[in-house]
Structures are given as C-alpha cells and as structure tokens.
Hints:
By secondary structure, this protein is an alpha/beta fold. It is about 35% helix and about 20% strand. The protein is globular, with a radius of gyration of 24 Å.
Amino acid sequence: MLKFESPLLAFEYWEKNSPDKEFLRQHINNKLIIYTFKESGNEIRRMATALKAFDFPKQSKIALLSKNCAHWVMADIAIMMAGHVSIPIYPTLQADTIKHILDHSESKAIIVGKLDDYASQKSAISNMPIISVEEYGNYETLTWENIISQNEPLKHLPDSLATDLITIIYTSGTTGLPKGVMHTIENFTNASNAFVNNIPLSNHPKFFSYLPLSHIAERIGIELGAIFRGASMTFSESLETFASNLEDTQPDLFFAVPRIWTKFQEKILQNMPQKKLDRMIGFPIIGNIVKKKIQKKLGLSQATYIFSGAAPLASSLMIWFEKLGINILQGYGMTEDCILSHTNMPGANVIGSVGKIAQGSKAILSAEGEICIKNDCLMVGYFKSPEETNKIFDENGYLKTGDIGEYDHDGYLTITGRAKDQFKTDKGKYISPAPIELELSKNENIDQVCIVGMGIPQPILLIVLSLIGNEKNKQELTQNIIQSIDIINGTLEKHEKIEKAVIMKEEWTVANGLMTPTLKIKRSQVEKIHIPMYRSWFNSSDQVIYE
C-alpha cells in the first residue's frame, strides 16, 4: 500500500505514473468535462506560477470561495504548490461572515469558483486580487482561464516543512462566529495515510463530491482521499441533477449526513409506498431484484463503504436501509481532530453507535463523560485565539470534544449528548436534548426537530414536517405527534417530559440561517427567533400547535 509524505507528493506521483487516468469529472451545462491527472496538473502548475508571481510572503493566506467543483480542487492544490495556506469559505455564507473570515485570516487574495449568488457576496471582498473562473459565469479582471493561458507550469514543488500550515478551516459553527482551525501539512498527511490504511479500496476508486469541501470530512475523506489513492472525483451540476449524476457515477465510497438519508427515504417511498415495498422485498428472488434496483437508482450499487456523520442518525432509519441491502456505517470526528476518531466498519457495525476507536487514534472519557481524543493530526490551535486553544486541550494533550458519550463492553461508542446543548428549565433542571431528538426523529412525519424549554416549566418540541407529514390531514397528524410524545414521555424523567409540540411554518435551511452548511440545526438561531413565543405556546390549550 502506497504511503506519501505530503499531499503534493501524492498528487505528483499520480501525475507522473497515471497521467491519463481520470481525476476530476465536472458536470456542467449538461456536459461532462473530464480532467486527467496530467491535464489537472498542467492547470494547477500554471496557477501556482501565477500565485507565486504576486510575490506574497511564504505561507500567505489565499481564500477559496466556491461550491464543490473541479476548480475547487485544482485551486486548493495550486495554493499548496505556491507555498501558501488555503482559507476555504463555505459558498452559502453571507457577505458579513465572508468579510469576517477574510479580515480575520488576513487573506491576500481570493479564488472565486462556482457560486449560486456571487453578486450578493462580492461586497465582502476588497483590497485583494480576485481570480474568478469564467466557466462558472464569473468574470473578474483576473480569470482562471487567462492566467492558465499566460503562465508556464511550475516545475518544482515548494521547499515546505511538515510543520508548515496547509490550511485554516473556519468551522461552520452552530453558535457564534466561526473559529479558524489551523492544520499543518503533517496533519493532513497523517490523516490521509491513516484513512487509506483503515479503509482499503481498489486502485483508482470512484468518489462523488457534493458535501462542502470547506468541511473537514469532505476535504480529508474525498479530496485528500482522491489525491492519496489516485481516485476520480465527480461533481454534480446542480441540486436538480444531483440524483442522476450520482446514479451515473456509482462511487466506491459514499459519505452522507442524516438529512440526505431522510431525503433518500422520502424519494423511495414516493415511488413505492411502504406496504408495497415491504411486500416486494419479502419475496426471495423479486426482493433481491428490487433491492439492487433501488441501490443502483441511489448510486450505491458499487459502494463498499457507506458512511454517515456530522450528526446522529436514527437507528430506525439505519435498520430501514439495511433491509434494502444498504448498510450505513456511522462515524464520528471533528474539524479539530481531522475526523480521525471513531467509526463503524463492515462486519463490525453496531447500529446506534459511532463505532470503535479508529486505528491511529486514542480516546478517553473525562470524569463528566466528555469524549477526549488524541492522534497525530490534531489541530495546532485556533488562529489568533490562544485562550480558546488552551481551553480545548486537557493537561495530557487530549482534545476535549464537548460531546458526552459512553462505551459498551465491546468498545463501541455512543454519543449521548452535547454539553453545550444542555438547557435549564425554569425549575432549575438541566435537559440534554440530543438523545430525545434522535428518538423522535424515528417518526416518518418529522423531518427536523429541536427540543427547547429555556424559561418555561417543561420542554416543548419545535417540528418541521417531512414530505410525508405534510401530506397528512391535520387531525391524523396531530394524533400521530401526540402518540410519539406519549411514547417518549414514558421513558423520560419528570423534568424532561415534553409538554407541547409546535409545527413550524417553514423548514430550517442553510439559506435562512437555521442550519449550518453541514446541515446541522443551529440551535442558538432557532432559539433566538422563537424564544419570545415559548411562554404563550406553553400556556396554549392545544398540545399540538400550528405556527
């Protein structure tokens, strides 16, 4: 098994030894543009020459604002090749947050790629060169295409140290302003080699990239995974073509977040109602044909590893997919530990857990049950925040995750809550919402749920309905929600029992600021908007309230 000493050396290996292998596959304008390792290397090296020509000091910060696309990856490698530090920015962020990141990171230049609404974000960028990509409809004075045509390829890799910074990742953050997580070349190298070792795949596997590359999981698992394995990366054209592009790709490894799995389930049940699905998969031969057809339609017929992370996935949903021959492996990790922490694996998968400690990582539980991680790719700290950095490490150098968990007798870890998500009712009792929310998410009528209760005697539920839930009549839906509350209340302590449920008018999305780019609910923002109504909702005569 190949092992590399840096991402650049890994890329250079495939560039020289497999020049004609597919590397980046970009769906655009109903066409598929393919960049081989040689073709990608040519553009990367020309862009690296141009970045060096700006004559910025070594290890200058170069921002990257773009949705996932071929040019995101080429830009990232070009920034490394020029000896600089990448500052990836989530493409859905608003101008004020983008400005904060650019100012805080001291970015010297920015590469602008594929975006949905660049016009609204452009005001955040000032006093720095902007390099845009014409292919995605953005035309600045400096464009990727012009730079590629006017510069020669860079011949030699930079004289970098393993301890040099490679990136500063600004966390998507469910609370407050994003913090800049600093990672070195050594961190990314160690994490990538560990994943190649822990997740064996055939030579030149196929990957599909759609979760934000600005996030550590997609960056390490997919982008760096492709660079270290000589894999191909396919990028969908749009949300509308996502399903067909994924189906065409049939990747060897697939990573999703819980919201993707609920959407997949909804789509399957739209085409085949549950009773019919149960009947069809109950027949030995026909059942296998139906399962394989569903797997292929989802794009998962070739996937050896199917992972879910970023937030807990309901056990009931995992069991539902398991019946279709789709075995989802939950994993766990953070930006700060390069996601090298815990994972389930084929043949060692305990539903409801996030798996065992990954090879290359160590973990302990604090006296309070907080999960603490140590590996050889922990961040070096938060940029310009020594106090925050000191707070997150214990005296033995373990990273304090803020998550509460417990191990079973076989070493499988279950996340039982997050310390910061706890809230206190006006009775002075603390409630950990995560495990209750996870249980409630089993209800097929519920798409998103958030338990709140600050300042009222008992907690209440805020619910966003699923497509199935929205199709139910009000009486049927109300009875169903009350039934779920009664069932869960039977398992809870007196102070945890849910008093009311409130059905939200609109869903929580990245666009309206109520979800992070990695599709986690921003609890603080949901609370900020709705807390003035808690008391009136609590005092309502109805148990289920429609906003």
